Amino acid sequence: xxxxxxxxGLGRSLVADPAFGPLRGLLLLLTVVTGVxxxxxxxxxxxxxxxxxxxxxxxxxxxxVGAPGFSLxxxxxxxxxxxxxxxxxxxxxxxxxxxxxxxxxAGAAAEFVFAAVALIIxxxxxxPGVTHGTLQLTGALGRTGAFGAxxxxxVAALLAIAMGVQNAVARKLAxxx
Length: 177
Hints:
By secondary structure, the protein is mainly alpha-helical. It is built from 7 helices and no strands. Helix 4 packs antiparallel against helix 5, helix 5 packs antiparallel against helix 6 and helix 6 runs antiparallel to helix 7.
């Protein structure tokens, strides 16, 4: 491999882009985090997304018409949380001014705090999450049952706030694909 091809490789463009520095790589990492958080929310909270608001609108409509297994409150808490997070992300944008690094640090820190609080609430609830899929295996450990509505709604809202902040920050950073 020549020196020139090493300088312009994919890995190099993700961590040391001349125009955007490490932002592309960091945004790629945040995209992976978003997918993981949404997957965990679907599996552990039941049918609710915390990063995909279009899905929550569909799930809310299913709940309104009485389809079994859908929680109207969880979907609405997630949408409200996402809106609050986007608003909070807007406040971070104003405070960071033109400093993109400060904005990314503040956004990632806020996202981490909300996700950590959601994890703590879920852990302290004593419930294993949903009772379908692979989480049924937790019954062998003497723990059965799903998260209660209050825990589900709270965790969905907190994780959606984190994703709303991330969305606002990522849009402001405007790193091209």
